[in-house]
Each structure stands twice: as structure tokens, then as C-alpha cells.
Design a protein that fits this description.
By secondary structure, the chain is α+β, with helices and mostly antiparallel strands. It is 33% helix and 21% strand. The strands form 14 sheets. Strands 35-39-40-46-43-42-41-56-57-53-52 form an eleven-stranded mixed beta sheet. Strands 16-29-30-31-27-28-17 form a seven-stranded mixed beta sheet, with no helix packed on it. A seven-stranded mixed beta sheet has the order 25-22-23-24-18-21-26. α1 links the parallel β1 and β2. The protein is globular.
């Protein structure tokens, strides 16, 4: 048969026709076209019309499809259902709806489909009728079998295709109340609408772009029009080819199909002609006014001096612009509209400017480029755009848009404006988003905290959920800032029906439950989704020992009946708790005959069974990255960074979670929705470590977090692991999220029962809440936040009183004290150290000292003034807080650059003074060379500069003028200094030449800056020396390395390992590199501390640095060295010695070695005694300064002594001296060591200064000894690959036999996923740090390289480790 043309009427609910057409395509050639009614023209005289008649006709043309059944009886049944779809499914009365769905439910209970065991017209017609009837859709869930059938059909390819082919306005998926208002486009008619989506390829698409793309697509489909995808590539500086690919991929993910593809650059020649045309019409002029002056003139509404240039002069300057010569680079082309207009966009806007950077598409063909405001209306007009959709922020430019089109005599499209999508806690600026990426605050552009399309989809947003949300907003022009919850609520409607349900238990708080009476089968099949019992099934395994969440177990009471989901009821016989009240084990007795599940605690659980091993899961919870809901114009977004926007929780999951694929969305029972970010991977042969399944929590837009422990009636008795959102901590009114960040109090606590366990839990929670109220008040939290916590505290006290009759005066771990009493207590007991797993060993008692330190049991509660994380729990965040809160750095508005405050720069000063004095003893002189490097000089030694090439920053402009040749900012100074060395060195008498400079260098390209450790600009010294003989040079290399060792070990108290770099790791262009390597206990990584390179004659040959040999008279090349030490020293010091209270500074480099704090300044102290105490402190400080002890007295009267103790402890001052009135009378003082916390009472006599000097030296020695003990305990020796990996994964450095070749293999095969790394990221493999000079042992003959696949004999023991 010939091609069948199916005319489909838009207004005739044609879904059944579209599905049927898709079904029969393999049997009958068909084509679909939209028309006013549904029909098939069989021939010139015969036609078939109407939805039912058309689908019958198509089914009969394709009998093999089975759509009309295979027997007369089936065909008759199908006819009945077709009639049913028209009559019964078309009514909207409640009775008719129930009757229709009941009929479907009954039919499906007997077979898979309505008319048999395969899809037929009956299913197509009835399914389509239900889908377009809102009343039937709302009631469908009440008929489980009908629901299963409906969803099974929804997954079939033909049904999916039919729905996707519906015009947008006909698609009934969005409920009427979710449909936004769409204003009709002016002058629009069917088939005559052309819209465009014109992004700039300078970043990733964000959710605002998604709204623009989907709105354009909406109108394209509504009017059967065309959508143009156009890249706005008018700025060659921003345009990047890789961003074009990213944007096109994002549009595919959004399922946005465009009809035409173009670039603005396709029309550059025509745009140039347009510009020249308006110049000739005297409607534009070329202006060489400097940019700053031009800006002032526009603000002051002053005409440019070039505004009345002749056409001839303008054309001459225009040619200079197109040529990109020196004159042209000073100019821009401006429209001659109205310099005095109230609308700033009309004050002679810029139309063209010169840029010498090559364009991605056109290369260097053009030197002058149009602005977006000039190019956009031209290209819209010539590409046939009928309606230009723009956000309201462009409103002021509308008049300019039309003026330009009038000036050029071009057709004018309609402008249609809509509101920009503004979201709370979000920035959409590409510049700001780029800053987050470059600062390493996010994983990348697809970070789940980012508003990019990739970010929200990685977090679990579906295309359909996003589309429904956008459509619900309509084309409103009202500018509102919305909460994210609304978007996620739309998404929940999409994922809830399809997300399979699984069980998981939090690893850290899991409790074993012994199940008595278990003798049944090992597993049974249950639905993956409880609403669809006939859908996909999964296995639930049973065992005599199961795991439950600790937060569930703490709610159990002996004798209580609990319900284990998918199993049954059981009676709790025994609950075992430790001394801290933590439940450690539970015994239950199964009650299989008890089917009363009302008012019981519902518990999720996992069986401990070898046949169904549990899967390790890492669940990541992401919160808003901006802490303030709405940023004002004057706000700096960097001041509102949410530093606690991510939480990671380890869990055990049922075995089926091991089969999840990336992108699968599931629901963990009572924990929420999650999307698989990284599938589970079993242990590999290389690492012997399994990679957990990484899940990312998907927000669901609910106002209340999911219940995660106990039943609804008992929620207040357990810690709610879902935690409070970061917003509630900020004082925001935003709804709680589901991230398990902190153990918190439920919003509306209720308590049932009055057992001892209940009272104990309640008391603990009152203490916790009371402490939190105090912390909030101390830290100056917002009043509404404090009031909310106080309200919770009062409610908890009321519950306790109702249970026990006890009336607590206050909550918290302490009692109220008056201010004077509190200050006195702080003077006596503040800063008592409490032993923790990270506590440093106390030093041996110094001669003559009395140790009065005591251990306390009370936990010290910090405020926002101190550190908010522990070093052992979140090392990266701990480091960031230490350097900021101790006043070592301040952040700067250029990414990767930081302000070094006096507290840190003083350390660099001390290092500089020591090292400078020592190298001068070796004959080294200081010099200074310029920071700028010519391009030719930098590229002269390409082998050397290759490693630095991506990091080089270039200067390309001077003011508004483009430089003839770019100038580099030095990444290192070899290429700066060595051309001059060639001039200075001619004879052996000019040698040795030993120069050093203290300067800064810039290395630009990296993704994750870290202050002091890895920054774009840093301070260093770089020595560059030249010798006549190799031996002289080699000797100096080792002399300098020894000085570097002394800097670290004698000044910074940081132990280092001296060694030689491998061939792969040596400095580019060097003969060999020596190094000192440190170890960072907090991260288990090595760190390169300083390097000294022997360059041999490599650079002297390149730069022709030679001399005439005094004996042979022949010209020889010099032997060179280079060596450098950077401000990384400060970062290493901080990482090695810092603790949970802040910095710990070694006395030799501390800005202040001693701080004196007067104590006992209470209201009872007389004015005379107060002044005597302060004067005594001042005099004591003067005597210490005279003895060259760096010290000061903290005499500030607006802070209490306790606050000062914490402040100076945070800043790491080695010794704090406390002096009170009683101490003056007894001629004594109290000294507190920062490194150990030991309190020492010392006599203030003629030996006090000598005693203090000795104490400072003892602290220095103790800090080095402790750091060395930790370092030595974390260096292992391994000759076997399994041992190598074990030590490496224990965060140790490993010395192993190495062949010198397979370093890349070792690094690759030792990379694993680790919980401490970024979620979804691989932990780096082991890197060869150095070949230590002090070897652990001599290599025995025949020992092979440590890598299992390497057959080569080892050459040396090499130090490996993960490193910075």
C-alpha cells in the first residue's frame, strides 16, 4: 500500500491516534500532519474520520500488529472497550469516574491487558482517555491494579512516542492548577512563529538559561513554528569551543530540539556593512575617548568631542579599527542616539570595539567585533525571528533595539519580555560561579550545589520535573525570588511513582538485633514500589541477626511491640546500653501471628547474611552554597558562603543497591530520595578495596523532613538524623532539609510513656538544647533563631515536668552564673585541657616548674569565634578556618590570591632573616630582576617552560591599547635572568656568580587553590648560581638543601626527609633535583617542602652562558644551580602543629612568644588595685622585651579574660601568662603552654626571664619531638604490593623498592575511592616523593620493583605517598 497520510486534529484529543500510528509503523508506511480534524483520506472519494475510526482503520491495515486481536471474540471485546473509552471515560461525575476505573481494575485482575495478554486498541483508547481526564487521573491511585496497568503502558515505546508528539498545549500531564498563564504572542499565527535561544558560549547553562530555552520551545511547539539555536559569539575573549559543546549537550539533556543552528559570527560581514551604512548616514561615529573619560561623560550626559566628526574622518578611523592598528585600538564605534537621554542605554551606546584575540570560528580575520546589543537585532531580523523573547532586565534596551533596526531599515521582530528566574540562596552570574569553581569550593560545574543544568540534574532533577516547573511559571513578568523547594516539589511528582524502594542503615550508629523465633525461609519477593504490587519485584532476605539504625534502637523499650517492615511484629525482650546510654544490642521475639500493625514503631532493617552481603553506601547531602536567602546589591556574595554545605554519611545498604547504575533514582525507606552518582564497584585486583555506591540526596520540596527514627508518635524520643538545615542555623525561615548534619531537636516534640529511658533521653535533650541556646546567644545569632531554640527548650522542660514533676531552672550542662562569678571561674579554670584521641603527649616537666594542670570531664563548647570543625573530622575545612580565624590571611577578590596579614608575614620575615644571613655566608648576594618576561625569552627554552606553560599569566593590554606582543608575568626567573648572565660572565674571573632574589611569582592555571599551599601568586626566594666546575655546583646544591632542612626543623619544628627526586619528578631542564619532603598527619599526605636543583650545563648552552678556560683557553659553559623556598612553609607549619583549638606556633617563629593577660579585674577590685595590676603587667612586658622575648600585654577592657584566653590560643601564642592581684602579692605568675595546655606556677624573680627562655626552648624541642614521633610512626616499609596498598590506605608514607620506570603504573593502580575524598571522586594514587638519602636498608640482590606487574629489578628504596 502507498504511504498513509494521517491528518491529526489538535483539538480532538488525538493521543490514541498518535500511539496507534507509532505501533503500526513497522507494518504500514505512515506520516502524520497536523490539521483541523483527525482523518485519513483513503482515495479521492473515500475518507475515514474521527479518532476511533482512524485507529480501527490503521489496526486493520496491520493485522500482524495484533492491535485488533487475533480472534473474532477479541475483536468484539476490543470494540466494547473502544465504546467504553468514549462513553464511560468521558464523564466527569464522581460516580462515573469510580465506575469506569472499577471496570478497568476488574478486567486487569484477570489478565495483563484489557483484551488479552498483549496490547490492543482497547488499551490504547482507554489509556489515552484516562490520561486526558483530570478526574480519572486523580482517582487512579485508589485502584491498584488499574494503576499498575496504566504505568506499565506508560513505559511502552509507542506510548512514550505518542505522548512526546503531542503539541505542548495539548499535553495533559501537568494538572490545570500547575499550568502557568501564557500570554499570546503579538501577531503570532500557526506556522508563522520563529523564536531563538542565543546563549554566549562562555560557561555552562544554568537553570535560568533552561527557563529561556524551554519557554522558546513552548512557543515553537504551540504555534508549530521554528526555534533557532544561535551562539552569541561576538566577544572572542569569552567564546570557547568546549563551552559550545557543553551547551549543545545540555540542550539535549533538556530535550530541546531546534530547527536551525547558527552563530552571530556567520553574519560578521553583513554586520560590518550595516555599521558602515549608519556611519555614512551620520547615525554613528568613531570615538577615541579613553574609556574612563567616556564613562564619566555618559554619566554626566556630556557629548563626546568626536560626536560631530565628519563622515570622512569617521570612515578613516573605521578603517583603522578594522585593521586593528595602533590608532584603531584606541577607538570604538558609537551610535548617535541621545547623549542626554534619561535612559542610559540610549546615551550613544558602543556598537563596535577592537580585539586582537583570535576568534574561535573566524581566527584573526576580524579585528573589530560588534557588541551583542548591535549584533542581536540585526541577526534577529535577517534570520527571520518573529518574536524575540527576553528577560525583563533587558527592558531598558528595547528602545535601543528598535532604534538600530530603524536606522538600518531592517524588519522589526516583536520583543516579548518575561521575568528572570530568581532563586533564593543562589547566584547565577557566570563570573561568580566561575569563582566558586576556581576557588575549589565546589567539585566543578556539575556540582550538586550549583544552579547549572548539570548540577541540578546530578542532584536528581529530571527533565520532566524541570519542564513542568517552567511551564507552571508561564510567561509572567513579575520578578519574584523563589525557593528551590517549589522546583523540587514538581520533581517529586515525577520521581515518586518510578523510584524503587530500598533499605539502608547508618553505619556509625547501627545496632545488631538478635531475632528469636526465626525459622522461616531465607527470603521472599516484595514489590520494589509499594503502590504497584504487581510491578517489579525484589528479594528481601531474613536472618537471625539483623541491623537497625541506632536512632530507631534508642526508642525501643522492653516489652514494646515493634514492626519490622516486610517481616512482621516482634516484642522487644532486652535493650543493652553502655555507660553513655548508647544502645549496643537488642533482643526481640518474633510474633508471626500478631498482625496488628497500628500504633507500633515501624523499623527498617537489614539482614546480616553471607548470601546477601551488605553494600557500602556513601550518602552525600548538599545544602545551599549561599547562606543568605536574597543578596542585596551592596552584598558581597563571598561574605555569605555556606562553609557547611555538604555532609557525608556512610551507610550499609541491601545487596540489590550494588546493581544501581549512574543516574538511577531510588528511595531509601524513611531517609528520602537519592540518585546514584557512582555505582558500587567490588574490590579490584590492584587495590583490594571496594568502592562504595555513592548516592546524592534528592530534595523533595517538603516542608517537613522525612521521619528517620521510631514511629510518628515517638519521634521526639530519638535523635532526628535528618538534621536541621543550614538555613535554620543561619536564622533563615527556610524549610528544613534532609541532610543529617547535626543531631537536633524535633520542631514539635511530643512524648509518650514515662519510662526511665524516656526521662533519660529527655534530660539529655534538654541539656543539649540548653547548651545550644547559650552558644547562639554567645555568638550573636539572630533573635528569631534564639527565640525558636528557647521555645523548643521550654517545651522540653514542660514535658519533663509533666512526666516527673521536676521543674528545671535552666537547661544545658552548666548552671547560670553572674558575670563577675563567670569571669572569676574563667580566671581559675579556663583552658583546662581535655584528653582526646588527637591530644599531644605532655612534655617532661621543666626543671623548677609546678604542674597544676587538671583534666576535666565537661566538654568545651565552641562558638563561631572559634573553630567549628575538628581537625580529625574535616581536615580541609579545619585548615581553612584556622588560617582565617587566627588572622593569618584575608580573602581577596582575585581568585587564588590572598592577603598575608601581619601574623603570618612575621613568620616569613623570621624565615627570611635566618636564610638570608646563612646564604650570605656562602657568598650569595641579593638582587632583583623584573617581573615581566618577553614572549621570545620565555619560549626560548621550550623544554623547561613546557611544564609552566598552562600556568603563565599574560599582559595583553595597556589601558585600552593592545600590546604589540604579549608580556608574561614570571612563573619562575630562569628565562628572565639567564640572558643577562650571558652578558655578565665572560671569563673565569667572573665566577662564581651567586645571586638570590626575594620576590613573588605568578602561576595561574589550577583548579583548587589552597592558601599557602597552592596559590596563584606566592612569595619565595629563588637562588640562581653559576660555577666553573660541576663539583662546585653540586656542593652548593647540598649546602642549600641543608639550610632548607634547618629552616623546617630548627625554626618550624617540622621534621623533613632529605632526598633526590626521581627522573620523572625532577625540575624540567635539571640534571637532578634534591628535595626535602614533609608529612601532614591530618591528611596522611606528603608535601614537597623545598627543592634545590643542579641544572648542569643545560641552561648555559641554551642561553650561551660561557667563559674562557684559564688553562686551555677554550670556551666552556658554566655549571648552574637554582633553588627556592616559598611561603608554603607557613601552610606546612599550620597543618603539622595546629589542633582543634587553632594554631600552635613554635616559639622561634612566633610573632609573639608570650602574651600577658591580667586577671581578676572584677567589680570588687578598687581603682587603685586595678591600675597597679595593669602597671605591673606593662612593666613585666618591658622586662621581657629587653631580654629579646617577643611579647605584649593584652590590656583591652572590652573583653573578658576568658575571651582573651581563647583568642590567643586560637592564634597559637606559645606561652600565655596570667597575672592577678593575688599573684602580685605572692610574686608569681601562671604560665600556660600552648602546645600541651600545662599550667605552671612560676616565681617572678630575677630568674624569671631565664626560666621563660628555657621554657620557650623546651616547647620548641617538644614540638619537634612530637611531630617527628608522629611522622616516624607513619612511614612504613613495604616490598609487597598488598602491604604497599595497606600502608598507603592507612594514610602513611611508604618506602618501597622501585625500578625507576613504572611510576605512572604505581600511581594509577594505587588510586582508590575513599570516604575522605570529595564525593564521587577518586583518591589520588601514590606519587614518588623522593629517593631518601638515608635509606631504610640496603637492597638485596634480586629484589623486584614493588609494582606486581613489573619484572624489573629495583634500583633503590623510594619514598611514595599521596601528596599535595
Amino acid at each position: 500500500m502507498d504511504l498513509i497520510k494521517v491528518s491529526v486534529g489538535k483539538g480532538s484529543q488525538p493521543l490514541a491516534v498518535l500511539i496507534t500510528t507509532a505501533f503500526v509503523r513497522d507494518h504500514v508506511a505512515t506520516t502524520v500532519e497536523w490539521a483541523s480534524s483527525t482523518a485519513i483520506q483513503v482515495d479521492s472519494d473515500v475518507s475515514v474520520s474521527g479518532n476511533v475510526s482512524v485507529i480501527r482503520f490503521l489496526a486493520r491495515l496491520a493485522p500482524a500488529s495484533g492491535l485488533y486481536g487475533y480472534t473474532p471474540l477479541q475483536a468484539s471485546k476490543i470494540d466494547e472497550w473502544l465504546e467504553f473509552s468514549i462513553i464511560s471515560c468521558g464523564s466527569q461525575s464522581q460516580a462515573a469516574v469510580g465506575s469506569a476505573l472499577d471496570a478497568v481494575n476488574t478486567a486487569i485482575s484477570q489478565k495483563a491487558f484489557l483484551a488479552g495478554n498483549s496490547v490492543s486498541l482497547a488499551d490504547i483508547a482507554v489509556w489515552s482517555a484516562i490520561r486526558v481526564n483530570d478526574d480519572l487521573m486523580k482517582a487512579l491511585d485508589a485502584y491498584p491494579k488499574a494503576s499498575v496497568w496504566y504505568r506499565q503502558c506508560s513505559k511502552l515505546e509507542a506510548f512514550v512516542e505518542g505522548v512526546s508528539n503531542l503539541p505542548v498545549q495539548e499535553e495533559p500531564a501537568a494538572k490545570a492548577e500547575d499550568q502557568g498563564k501564557f500570554v499570546e504572542l503579538q501577531g503570532a499565527s500557526d506556522g508563522n512563529v520563529v523564536v531563538r535561544f542565543p546563549p554566549e558560549a562562555s560557561g555552562y547553562l544554568h537553570i535560568g538559561h533552561a527557563k529561556a530555552a524551554l519557554l522558546n520551545q513552548y512557543y515553537q511547539q504551540k504555534f508549530s513554528g521554528k526555534l533557532i539555536m544561535r551562539f552569541d559569539d561576538t566577544n572572542p575573549v569569552k567564546e570557547k569551543a568546549d563551552f559550545e559543546e557543553v551547551i549543545l549537550d545540555d540542550l539535549k539533556m533538556l530535550k530541546v530540539d531546534y530547527d536551525l543552528f547558527s552563530r552571530t559570527s556567520d553574519h560578521f560581514d553583513y554586520i560590518l556593512e550595516c555599521a558602515e551604512g549608519i556611519i555614512k548616514k551620520r547615525l554613528a561615529y568613531v570615538d577615541d575617548t579613553p574609556q574612563e573619560q567616556m564613562q564619566k561623560e555618559r554619566e554626566q550626559r556630556i557629548p563626546s568631542r568626536n560626536r560631530e566628526n565628519t563622515v570622512e574622518k569617521n570612515l578613516q578611523l573605521w578603517e583603522d579599527m578594522k585593521a586593528g592598528n595602533e590608532t584603531g585600538l584606541q577607538c570604538c564605534l558609537r551610535a548617535k542616539i541621545d547623549y542626554a537621554s534619561d535612559n542610559g542605554c540610549l546615551r550613544d551606546p558602543t556598537l563596535f570595539r577592537c580585539k586582537l584575540e583570535p576568534h574561535v570560528q573566524t581566527g584573526t580575520k576580524y579585528k573589530a567585533y560588534p557588541t551583542y546589543d548591535f549584533a542581536c537585532p540585526i541577526v534577529d531580523s535577517i534570520e527571520g525571528v518573529t518574536h524575540a523573547l527576553r528577560t525583563m532586565e533587558y527592558h531598558d534596551r528595547d528602545e535601543q533595539y528598535y532604534w538600530l533596526l530603524d536606522a538600518m531599515g531592517l524588519r522589526k521582530p516583536h520583543i516579548w519580555e518575561y521575568s528572570r528566574l530568581n532563586l533564593q540562596h543562589t547566584v547565577l552570574s557566570k563570573r561568580k560561579l566561575t569563582w566558586f569553581v576556581e576557588e575549589g569550593l565546589v567539585d566543578g560545574w556539575d556540582d550538586p550545589r550549583f544552579p547549572t543544568v548539570r548540577g541540578v540534574m546530578r542532584k536528581g532533577m529530571t527533565v520532566e520535573g524541570l519542564r513542568q516547573f517552567i511551564i507552571a511559571q508561564g510567561s509572567s513578568k513579575a520578578n519574584v525570588t523563589m525557593e528551590w523547594d517549589k522546583i523540587w516539589a514538581f520533581n517529586r511528582k515525577v520521581i515518586d511513582p518510578i523510584a524503587a524502594r530500598y533499605s539502608a542503615v547508618v553505619k556509625e550508629r547501627s545496632v545488631e538485633v538478635n531475632v528469636k523465633g526465626f525459622a522461616g525461609k531465607e527470603f521472599k519477593h516484595v514489590p520494589k514500589h509499594p503502590k504497584f504490587p504487581e510491578g517489579d519485584q525484589k528479594e528481601v532476605w531474613y536472618s537471625a541477626v539483623i541491623l537497625v539504625d541506632g536512632d530507631d534502637a534508642v526508642t525501643f523499650s522492653e516489652g514494646e511491640t515493634v514492626t519490622f517492615m516486610h517481616w512482621g511484629n516482634a516484642v522487644v525482650e532486652r535493650v543493652v546500653s553502655n555507660d553513655d546510654g548508647v544502645v549496643t544490642a537488642v533482643d526481640v521475639q518474633l510474633k508471626p501471628d500478631d498482625t496488628n500493625y497500628k500504633n507500633t514503631t515501624k523499623v527498617t532493617w537489614l539482614a546480616k547474611l553471607e548470601k546477601a552481603p551488605l553494600i557500602p553506601i556513601t550518602c552525600a547531602y548538599y545544602d545551599d552554597i549561599i547562606s543568605k536567602p536574597v543578596l542585596a546589591k551592596e552584598d558581597n556574595f563571598k561574605d555569605y558562603i555556606n562553609q557547611n554545605s555538604k555532609a557525608v554519611v556512610d551507610m550499609y545498604g541491601e545487596s540489590l543497591l550494588g546493581s544501581l547504575k549512574k543516574g538511577d533514582i531510588v528511595q531509601l525507606q524513611r531517609k528520602g530520595f537519592f540518585i546514584c552518582d557512582q555505582p558500587y564497584a567490588p574490590a579490584s585486583i590492584h587495590t583490594s578495596v571496594e568502592a562504595p555506591c555513592v548516592l546524592i540526596a534528592v530534595p523533595d520540596g517538603r516542608s517537613k523532613a522525612l521521619l528517620t527514627s521510631g514511629s510518628k508518635a515517638k519521634r521526639s524520643e530519638a535523635s532526628v538524623t535528618s538534621g536541621e538545615s543550614a538555613d535554620s542555623q543561619r536564622g533563615s525561615s527556610k524549610k528544613a532539609k534532609q541532610a543529617p548534619k547535626l543531631e537536633t531537636i524535633a520542631a514539635e516534640p511530643t512524648l509518650v510513656g514515662a519510662g526511665a529511658a524516656d526521662v533519660g533521653v529527655l534530660r539529655a535533650r534538654i541539656t543539649e538544647c540548653g547548651d545550644r541556646v547559650r552558644e547562639l546567644k554567645t555568638s550573636g545569632a539572630a533573635k528569631e533563631v534564639v527565640d525558636a531554640e528557647v521555645k523548643v527548650l521550654l517545651e522540653l522542660k514542660k514535658q519533663l515536668k509533666d512526666l516527673t514533676g521536676e521543674d528545671l531552672a535552666s537547661g544545658g550542662s552548666g548552671k547560670k552564673k553572674g558575670k563577675a562569678k563567670a569571669d572569676k571561674q574563667a580566671e581559675q579554670t579556663n583552658q583546662k585541657k581535655h584528653p582526646t584521641k588527637d591530644s599531644k603527649p605532655s612534655a617532661t616537666l621543666f626543671k623548677g616548674e609546678v604542674d597544676v594542670s587538671k583534666d576535666g570531664d565537661a566538654k568545651k563548647h565552641g562558638t563561631r569565634l572559634g573553630l567549628e570543625v575538628k581537625k580529625s573530622e574535616n581536615f580541609s575545612e579545619w585548615y581553612s578556618q584556622v588560617i582565617k580565624k587566627s588572622e593569618m590571611i584575608e580573602y581577596y577578590d582575585v581568585s587564588g590570591c590572598y592577603i598575608l596579614r601581619p601574623w603570618s608575614y612575621s613568620i616569613w620575615d623570621i624565615i627570611k632573616n635566618f636564610f638570608d644571613g646563612e646564604i650570605k655566608k656562602l657568598g650569595v648576594e641579593n638582587t632583583y630582576f623584573p617581573i615581566f618576561v618577553s614572549k621570545s625569552a620565555l619560549e626560548r627554552e621550550k623544554t623547561h617552560i613546557e611544564d609552566f606553560a598552562p600556568e603563565v599569566a599574560w599582559v595583553t593590554r595597556s589601558g585600552q591599547s593592545e600590546l604589540a606582543e604579549p608580556i608574561a608575568i614570571r612563573p619562575t626567573s630562569e628565562t628572565v635572568m639567564y640572558p643577562t648572565y650571558a652578558k655578565w660572565i665572560q671569563s673565569h674571573r667572573d665566577l662564581p656568580l651567586q645571586l638570590n632574589q626575594w620576590n613573588n611569582v605568578v602561576r595561574w592555571e589550577f583548579k583548587q587553590p589552597q592558601p599557602f599551599i597552592r596559590t596563584r601568586e606566592f612569595l619565595w626566594q629563588e637562588g640562581h648560581t653559576a660555577f666553573a666546575t660541576r663539583q662546585e655546583a653540586v656542593d652548593e646544591v647540598h649546602q642549600i638543601l641543608e639550610l632548607y632542612r634547618r629552616v623546617y626543623e630548627e625554626l618550624l619544628a617540622v621534621p623533613v626527609i632529605c632526598g633526590k627526586k626521581t627522573e620523572k619528578e625532577k625540575f624540567a631542564g635539571a640534571d637532578f633535583t634534591t628535595t626535602i619532603e614533609g608529612y601532614i598527619p591530618g591528611s596522611g599526605r606528603g608535601i614537597q617542602a623545598a627543592t634545590s636543583h643542579h641544572l648542569g650545563q643545560n641552561f648555559s648552552r641554551m642561553f650561551d652562558i660561557g667563559f674562557e678556560h684559564p688553562i686551555t683557553g677554550e670556551r666552556e659553559f658554566v655549571h648552574q644551580n637554582s633553588w627556592g623556598l616559598t611561603t608554603r612553609t607557613i601552610g606546612v607549619l599550620t597543618m603539622v602543629h595546629g589542633d582543634d583549638q587553632g594554631l600552635v606556633l613554635p616559639p622561634r617563629v612566633a610573632c609573639l612568644q608570650v602574651v600577658v593577660v591580667p586577671c581578676g579585674l572584677t567589680v570588687k577590685l578598687s581603682d587603685k588595685d586595678r591600675e597597679d595590676l595593669l602597671a605591673h603587667c606593662r612593666d613585666f612586658v618591658v622586662s621581657l622585651k629587653d631580654a629579646d622575648i617577643r611579647c605584649k600585654a593584652d590590656l583591652r577592657d572590652n573583653y573578658s579574660p576568658g575571651w582573651k584566653f581563647n583568642h590567643w590560643e586560637l592564634k597559637g601564642v606559645p606561652v600565655r601568662i596570667e597575672i592577678g592581684p593575688r599573684d602580685i602579692k605572692q610574686r608569681q605568675f601562671v604560665a600556660i603552654r600552648r602546645d600541651t595546655g600545662g599550667r605552671i606556677i612560676a616565681k617572678q624573680d630575677e630568674h624569671a626571664i631565664e626560666w621563660l627562655n628555657g621554657l620557650l626552648e623546651d616547647i620548641q624541642a617538644s614540638m619537634f619531638a612530637n611531630a617527628k614521633a608522629v611522622r616516624d610512626a607513619n612511614i612504613a616499609i613495604a616490598t609487597d604490593w598488598d602491604d604497599f596498598l595497606k600502608h598507603l590506605n592507612d594514610k602513611k608514607l611508604v618506602q618501597a623498592p622501585y625500578c625507576g620506570i613504572c611510576e605512572d603504573k604505581i600511581k594509577k593502580d594505587s588510586a582508590i575511592h575513599d570516604d575522605s575524598s570529595e564525593v564521587g571522586q577518586a583518591l589520588m594514587g601514590a606519587k614518588a616523593l623522593c629517593i631518601p638519602f638515608d635509606k631504610p636498608a640496603e637492597l638485596e640482590d634480586g629484589i623486584r620493583c614493588v609494582h606486581p606487574s613489573c619484572e624489573l629489578e629495583a634500583k633503590s628504596y623510594t619514598l611514595f605517598g599521596r601528596s599535595y
